[in-house]
Amino acid sequence: MSLHRKIFLSLAIAIVGISFVFIFLTHLTVKGAIEAGIKETRGWEITSINNELTAYFLEKDHSWDNIQQLNILQNISQDKPEILVMDRDDNVILKKGNSSRRLVQHLGIKSELKINKEKVGQFIYYDPEISNFNKIMIGIPISVVTLLITSGSLFIIISLIMAYRLSKWLAAPLQKLLPMIDRLGKGEFGIQVPSHTKDEYGKIANAFNQMSKELEQAEVVRRNLTADVAHELRTPLTIIGGKLDFLQLQGKMIKPETLIPLQDELIRLNQLVEDLRILSLAEAGKLKLHKIPTNMLDLAYQFKLALKPIAEEKNISIQIDAQTNDTTISVDPNRIKQVFLNLLTNAIRYTPNQGDIYIRLLKDDHSYLKIIVEDTGIGMEQKHLPHLFDRFYRTDDSRTRDHGGTGLGLAIAKQYIISHDGRIEVKSIVSHGTRFIIQLPYNVEAYLD
Known about the structure:
This protein is α+β, with helices and mostly antiparallel strands. About 55% of the residues lie in helices and about 15% in strands.
């Protein structure tokens, strides 16, 4: 059963049920009020007759013998009063008046005779005035019930129409969403559901659209990853294969120096495979870290000294600015060194001659040590920044692997930082430089093997 029909059926059952309960309770209330009003108009007479009959029953030793001789209506001042008395078995034992028994029973006032809560009989009082009053009162409940049924039926019909439209309106957004879900399940990533509201349906549609976009991006990344891995593997394998074919065709003794290019390509190939393995472990949260207290300021000076020869070839100045003395945190120094090495070598590569590179350390909200690596290089366009940490992503598609690496360095750097419960972001302006901002927590627990 569709959601539309389920909602309509639930609303219909609720409407019909509530309507019938309302009609029934209203009928009982009106009927009870009328009966109470009728009895109240002859309350004194009913009480007087009840007391007199009860006294007679007790006087006759719990018997109704010779009750016909009792002048029960002598104290009643109403016009033409009548009475019908019955024993406990509803047998008529006394009747005074000229009206028919059926008329008295139908339009009179009934009252039970009890002694010690035990029923010993009952009587029905009747007079012309109470007869007319009862006729009117009998018509009122009938009119009320008729009115209630008529109005209730009209209410139910109108409510059912409204419930049908309401259920259709409530289910309409989902009916639009379901075909999109089916299309997404069949691999049609990137499809979008129109969303024009800010209610729960709008939030669901927006969440679906976001998920669809992310799946589309993930699919693009997967395809690009397959193509990039194939490309990165094909290049060294082609070189190795070509060299081996050439050496085989020569048919001569192979000199050791001839194998050096082959060894270089094997090293690159092994490095690529190792980078992919490390990146996969980090993304899966299975990367093992050996954390120890490490002074990040000392680490920065070590890299400045190690990269100084490369920087001096382009007259690039590496400057360190420590704005806090609290620079010791618990990290895996080998992993963090790889992050710094990647960021600094990239900064040197894309910073023009006589440029500057800055390493800044400062305390952020007493919870994180912020490390900023900034250069005065060529910068990047804003469209590249969201994808800069993706695998094999290059801001310049024409750049070869020899000039720009495999494209895994920043992806690995990000995963290393995330593995340390930290954050990394990048800001860049074309022709003004790039800034990488790393935040590493002070209170990180060490990971053990």
